[in-house]
Amino acid sequence: MMYDHFGRRLAMSALLLATLALSAPLFAQPPAQKPAPGPWMNTSLSPDERADLVIKAMTLDEKVALLHGVGMPTDDPVTPENAPSNRGVGYAVGVPRLGIPGIDMSDAAYGVRSSGVNGRYSTALPANVAAASSWDVDAAYEYGALIGRELRAQGFNMTLGGGANITREPRNGRTFEYLGEDPVLAGTLVARLIQGTQSAHVVSDLKHYALNDQESGRTAVDISISKRAARESDLLAFEIAVTKGHPSAVMCSYNRVNGDFACENNFLLNETLKQAWKFPGFVISDWGATHSTEKASAAGLDNEQPGDFFYNAKFKAAVEAGRISTAELDEHVHRILRSMFEAGVIDHPRQRSVIDPFAGFETARKIEEGGIVLLKNEKAALPLNAAKIKSIAVIGAHSDVGMISGGGSAQVDPIGGNAIMPPGEGATHWQDHIWFPSSPLKAIKARAPQATVSYDPGTDAAAAAEAAKKADVAIVFAYQWEAEGMDLPSMSLPEHQDDIVAAVAAANPHTIVVLETGSPVTMPWVEKPAAILEAWYSGSDGASAVGNILFGTVNPSGKLANTFPKSEADLPHPVVTMPPPASDHFDGPASPEQWAKGLPPFPVAYDEGVKVGYKWYDAEKKPVLFPFGFGLSYTTYAYSDLKVAEGDTVKVTFTLANTGARAGAEVAEVYAALPAAAQEPPKRLVGFAKVKLDSKQKQTVTVEVDKKYLSIFDEAKNDWSLLPGEYTILVGGSSQDLPLKTTVTLK
Ligand code: BGC
């Protein structure tokens, strides 16, 4: 028997393959799974009661079948097992005899993946990091709800979205899929995103649990970190997501943590997720991240994906031999079934329908408008006044035709294909740089109909400078592409774009830089342009959002979810630890034996501990380029009247006023400095609110701070602990601009 990279069985006779391929149309559209009239269909019972009733009726084989995948239907030929699937990346067969549908999974980080190959269309939302930069909990809900609706419409009933790893390593190739460097921000937003997805009766997911903070050698790396630092940083984001978002599933990650693979790590799965956080859902392995049967089962892994190396025949044999108890087996099954009942995928079977692409465009544009961050705006260079500008030079980054997107398993297929390819040749391939057909040039022309708008590709610095010199305003687009499976080689813009931006800005004092990146970048040219916008990976209608911000139809309100350091030398780890060749990646078909062993571990010590992002720069007193929480607006805000009251939560109340001439939305940020005895970094984010205000409008704002966010994780007690003492509460519009300050004594 042959196995491929993800543990899929490859052995099948040529005849069987041919027969299955020819009969594909017969299998392609499954009959709707009619719920069997078992007692578990009584909706007045709880999901737990209903799950137990199903378990009573199940055979051992049916139970084991629920614990693993049947390959990756996207790539695999049709088989009897995967035939009822929607041909996504994963499928678990359900219990057809009892009316329990299969779990039909699709990646959906910023939109539903692989719609092109399935002849469908998905909205691409702005990258998750853009949504994080909106600091908008309602937008996060809308983000998740749109994904949930489009999953169902395409025939799926489970998302594999919900990335919440904090940005410990900004060169991580998946930074765009995550929600920034702070656990309270990331946890709060992903909790709302999960709730949004579940509102569409879709099994939700939270990933990659945990400490999968670099992609280099991700299946081999062994992360070492203290329990306290882990609980107060990366795991806090997951704790908030689990306890406030109530996801159905948590995906354990590829890496090792303190010696054990995440998917067989008792500390992560049982001790923390299931016991401390009381997570009632199921743990699903990342694709090929399962390495054992008994050990993984005992540690708390409930479902192996996408194949069945360890959770099929071996699992059954272990149950029959008594090495895995029936109670342990039933617990895995219970967790899966109760989550399906709770998510509503049994009571509301998936049904294909046509999505509303126009509503999708509008949601994507609005979220992007709220997430774009205005980093610099000298002499009010922005917004542009279309009535006064006679000529605009648009330069660089294929801005005539499109805007870049993030790759890997998050990749959404663009309508019409990759915008930089000739028509008909733009199919999406793994690790292609995919540009969405959302043209900044067209968006700018539409907003400045009286101006002459030129385009220069920005590949030659002299030519770009020449184009800029001739125009009233130069708008230079610059990008950095990133994707799963690799880290960025550096924080610099690739392809000599630093030189292009510097040349354009030197040629025209009214130069605006628009960045399309998923991670912070260094900016050796930062002093030169008049204005800088960070637009991230901007989604299906990114160009309209950028146009609306450039011309002032929308007032920017995004704030950075990640610090932009001055230089890579300032990072906790100036260089990403690369795997030795033997631990780089599995090459060619792997056997269960090879898989069980895993690649040789290589160590990465997170000895900066809890000092992630701004906590590191604060503690180390390193000046940064743009701080966490920073973002400008076309109006101004004033903060006053800070009051703090203690009850079950700590209530932080203040007045926020829009003192400028335009309506806007301000992200008000609340930080706390703990008593010295806590030995924590100088401050931490403990709450925030995004407040819409008309020009000259004032509002009293109250942010309720969960006391856990003021606590430390006490390893001796193995629990959170609020140290008695004096806490300083700081409030303002950026981690480095906190005009309000008071103290409160907590006991
Ligand atoms: C990724 C997951 C993804 C899975 C299925 C893995 O390589 O790490 O995020 O959900 O593949 O595509």
Mean pLDDT: 94
- Give the proportion of residues in helices: 25-40%
Q: How many E-type strands?
A: 29
- Annotation field: number of helices: 20
Assembly of the depicted chains: single chain
Largest sheet: 6 strands, mixed
Strand content: 15-25%
Unreliable segments of 5+ consecutive residues: 1-31
Q: Strand order within the widest sheet?
A: 10-17-16-15-11-14
Radius of gyration equals 26 Å
Shape: globular
> Structural class, from helix and strand content?
alpha/beta
Small-molecule components bound: beta-D-glucopyranose
Distance between the termini: 63 Å
Characterise the protein shown here.
The chain contains 20 helices and 29 strands. The strands form nine sheets. A six-stranded mixed beta sheet has the order 10-17-16-15-11-14, with helices on both faces. The chain is globular and about 80 Å long. Residues 1-31 have low confidence and may be disordered.
